[in-house]
Design goal:
CATH superfamily: Metal-dependent hydrolases
Largest sheet: 9 strands, mixed
InterPro entries: Amidohydro-rel, Hydantoinase/dihydroPyrase, Metal-dep_hydrolase_composite, Metal_Hydrolase, Metallo-dep_Hydrolases_sf
Domain Amidohydrolase-related: 54-437
EC number: 3.5.2.2
CATH topology: TIM Barrel
Organism: Tenuifilum thalassicum
Shape: globular
Number of helices: 15
Bound molecules: N-(aminocarbonyl)-beta-alanine, zinc ion
Number of strands: 17
Keywords: Hydrolase, Metal-binding
Helix content: 25-40%
Amino acid sequence: MTLTKVSILIKNGRIITSVTDKVSDIYIEGDKIKAIGKNLDVKSELVIDADGLFVFPGGIDPHVHMHLPTPAGFSADDFHSGSIAALYGGTTTLIDFVTPQRGQSMVEALKLRIEEAKDSLADYSFHVSPVEWNKKIGNEIEECIGMGFPSFKIYMAYKNSIGIDDNALYHVMHAVAKHGGIVLAHCEKGDEIEQLRNSFYEQGNTSPKYHALSRPSHLEALAVRRAIDLADQTQCPLYIVHVSASESVKHIIQAQKSEQPLYAETCPQYLLLNESVYEMEFTNAAKFVMSPPIRSEKDNHTLWQAIANGNISSVGTDHCPFTMEQKMQGKDDFRKIPNGAGGVEHRLGLLYTYGVAAGKISLKKMVDVFSTQPAKLFGLYPKKGEIAVGSDADIVIWNPSKSSKISAKSHHSNTDISAWEGFNIKGEPTHVIKGGAIAIENGKLAPNIEKGNLLKRQTTGRSHYFKYLHTPGSNNCGRV
Ligand code: URP
Ligand code: ZN
Ligand code: ZN
């Protein structure tokens, strides 16, 4: 059911964007921001007093996996449940993935995936994954871009299913660059990892810890280096997903210094958790089986620093939850534990608590990595990722004086486990507004909330990506 939207006036909130911090009013009509200013003289059907509260643009999570098929079954959230969890955490836009079977048309797979997502309550879009290379793939890349999907994720890991080799990657990058898109790369040396996994298992090492030991940092960093070189050769803008290791960050900084259009994403789990999680018994350790694995405290530190300095542009969640029953499929063989953890609901709370409140990043930087940079990099800006007249009215009103503890018992994701169990959170949304309508109010999902929109995105080619390249050390660096 579509409801007529009431106009909303948010009064006296402290509006934080990636570049400004000011107390003002915001007037919303329909699905857009209509006016911003002090003491706005407008008649509004709903007034929200935001005195003492922060107002952020709605979050864009550029990396989620809803209803992902795996040998252990689908990831536990579908687009409906996952989008509800997202909204509770202030994320109003999700970018998921289209992963075709080898031999299947990417365009066909994209159309099917669009159908699967139609019950999302957040707005949504997709990165498309070339899982092989041939001429047809080149044509389909052009077609996907023409349809409004200009970003393509490749996997250097998972070689026996969806991963591609360097030759295929070169051709994919060449085609994506030619048509003005961007490649996202999952960087882990797949062949070497496969050998390590099998040899650990054959020696009787079956527990979750061997998942981590078979995916060491240097095999991530080597793949990062290779992806950067191939992107340079093909002049292709590159976004490295879920960066977890200090060694990878070194390569990223080096390439950014040479002004290559290169961006990086990390996730809260690589900022806040360390390898001790794998020392616990199976039912705890299995929650942290994800790729790349959780690294060290030193890596946590490097990644925060890279965010503050602008070398890492974006924080996604890689939301890919499974239930304990699914994780148990790898009880006697870590290779069978489905990879991934949930987190779409907690990105803002974790960034605020352990980034801003802990003095590691500024509020503006938090907004930048949570919303603005993902919007800019993936062709959604300034419709999304901004609080400005004409932008979509996707807004989080955040009360910094509330506190809570994360638990699988109270989260909104469709799984009985959480990698964030017991984490304390400072702050919570009093309101999440999506497309001009209240989606969440004081911890409750609004009834009859409208479905989200499929977002077709724009690309303006390589020069677009240069435009948004961070200059480490510039005044946009986000140090507190
Ligand atoms: O372990 C993870 N990250 N699972 C999701 C798939 C991926 O590699 O992003
Ligand atoms: Zn990945
Ligand atoms: Zn992922």
